[in-house]
Amino acid sequence: MTKLILKFSITDEDDGQQSLSLGWQIESGENEIMNELAERVRDDVLAKLKSIIEKIDEGKNHAIH
């Protein structure tokens, strides 16, 4: 079995901005197809999250770590 674990958090910065942190962990299994799928899902989630933030908060600065 392969597991993809995503963790999200928002922190307030000293300048009043908020920072979104996205952490992930992939626990690889024996099936290479499932391992590759987990990596691709992770990449797609990160890309989609960046796109959503840009649409919601145009003109605001955000850092995704």
Can you give a write-up of this model?
The chain is built from one helix and two strands; from the N terminus they run ββα. It has 65 residues and is α+β, with helices and mostly antiparallel strands. It has one domain. The relative contact order is 0.24. Strand 1 (3-12) and strand 2 (18-27) form a beta hairpin. The protein has a two-stranded antiparallel sheet. The mean pLDDT is 85. The protein is elongated.
C-alpha Rg, in Å?
Answer: 15 Å
Number of helices: 1
Roughly how much helix do the residues carry, as a percent range?
A: 25-40%
**Envelope shape:** elongated
Strand order of the largest sheet: 1-2
Oligomeric category = single chain
Determine the structural class based on helices, strands and strand pairing: alpha+beta
Beta-strand percent range: 25-35%
Distance between the termini: 27 Å
* Largest sheet data: 2 strands, antiparallel
- In total, the number of strands is 2
What is the N-to-C succession of helices and strands? EEH
- Residue stretches low in confidence (pLDDT < 50, at least 5 long) are none
Mean pLDDT comes to 85
As for the number of domains, it is 1
